């Protein structure tokens, strides 16, 4: 859990490399990619975890393959213990499958053929039994701009029930302190050369 702030910082830094002439959604896509890459790198290098592509989910899992972690964009309730967050965008069947596995209902639904592809270097594949027993958590985050600052509310949570593309109930939630960073206006050009944007994290 100690690495999760670093994951969010990496995503924010990547988001800020997008410029107005990039395709729509570039900033969010780069943030997602940085979130996935960083959560994997930190856990692989420091905890001996492994890369896991589970269905279409980009995850990292522990050495005994009992727990995995991924990232997810939440809504305005993210990080608020008294509220109930949902995923900000509809998700596919793989999220439903890991949710059922979280509740011990995975064996009858897991399509292990989906889970063996894409292990890649330093990656693992799961047996049917491992996939059914896997407990999957998500680093849920919700980003807002307030004046000159960016705030990222976040929590580490395990989905319990999934309906029509959305998590409608969580098993366990661990709200985390919100991250506040200086806001930066996007650059107004996308000319050649590397972009060097100072990012002051607090």
Description:
The protein is α/β, with parallel strands linked by helices and 202 residues long. A hairpin with a 2-residue loop joins β5 and β6. It contains four helices and seven strands, in the order ααβββαβαβββ.
In whole angstroms, the N-to-C terminal distance is 18 Å
Overall mean pLDDT score?
85
Oligomeric form of this entry? single chain
- Secondary-structure-based class equals alpha/beta
Radius of gyration based on Cα positions = 17 Å
Please give the number of β-strands. Answer: 7
Largest sheet, spatial ordering of strands: 4-1-2-3-5-6-7
Main pleated-sheet profile: 7 strands, mixed
The percent range for helix content is 10-25%
How many separate helices? 4
Tertiary shape: globular
The SSE order reads HHEEEHEHEEE
Question: TL;DR of this structure?
Answer:
By secondary structure, this protein is α/β, with parallel strands linked by helices. It is 25% helix and 31% strand.
